[in-house]
Amino acid sequence: MNFKTSQENFWAGQFGDEYIKRNDSESLQFSKVALWSQMLRSANSVNSALELGCNIGLNLVALSKLSPKMKLIGYEINSKAVQRAREYQVASIHEGSILDKINTEKCDLTFTAGVLIHINPKYLDNVYENLVTNSGRYVLVAEYYSPDPTVITYRGEQDKLFKRDFAGDLIDRYGMKLVDYGFLYKRDNWAPQDDITWFLLEK
Asked: What is the pLDDT of residues 130-166, one digit of tens each?
């Protein structure tokens, strides 16, 4: 598969394979169910969802536990992660880069979780466009937040993690409305994950 950026090659290759091993646990699954129950508290009638950059599908599994009848779709660049995600049999999983144009039936919710931070900033608009055009109502981004674009060293790697106000970009460029937002703390007593700030937006 030919990619546009070094970041895509990074996640499609060995580092992406290693990421799978670090993020496959029952405790993380519990935390994700708890997080999604919080992130969707202000959303109405979400019967379908599309995740861009689903990895092994833990967010999709969490959504299926909260709403077993929800129709779920995921896109993922790493082939091994795609195989693992398909094993859960809760979603339709597609292999490919989310920088490419995605045309699927509109879902009530489109989202990313810890994915926009790893996208080359020059191609962020590609992903934003996929989020917005494939959404029938809601877009959710759960990412590292920074008021200003910032590059962070990621596990010793350069140009692989970029923080910014992703929700602000979507509000400014697409006229989206802020519905709800929150912060997940890595030292949470019940359902810790990473320090993630999430934003639920509406078209």
From this structure: 999 999 999 999 999 999 999 988 777 777 899 999 9
Whole-Å CA distances, 149 to 122, 164, 168: 12, 4, 12
Residue partners of 143: CB distance under 8 A and separation at least 6: 112, 113, 114, 115, 116, 117, 163, 166, 196, 197, 198
Q: Within its chain, how far is the Cα of 9 from the centroid?
A: 18
Q: Which amino acid is at 55?
A: N
Confidence band for 185, pLDDT divided at 50, 70 and 90: confident
User: And the tokens for 127?
Assistant: 């992903």
Angle at 4 between CA 127 and CA 59, to 5 degrees: 40
Res. 40 pLDDT band, cuts 50 70 90: very high
- How many Å apart are CA 59 and CA 192, to the nearest integer? 15
pLDDT for res 186: 79
Q: Taking a C-beta distance cutoff of 8 angstroms, is the pair 154, 15 a contact?
A: no
pTM of full prediction above 0.85: yes
List the domain boundaries for the chain.
6-202
What is the CATH code for 6-202? 3.40.50.150
H-helix segments, 23-78: 26-39, 58-66
List CB contacts of 177: < 8 A, sequence separation 6 or more. 171, 201, 202, 203
DSSP run (H or E) holding 104: none
Q: What are the C-alpha distances in Å from 154 to residues 158, 165, 167, 191?
A: 7, 18, 22, 24
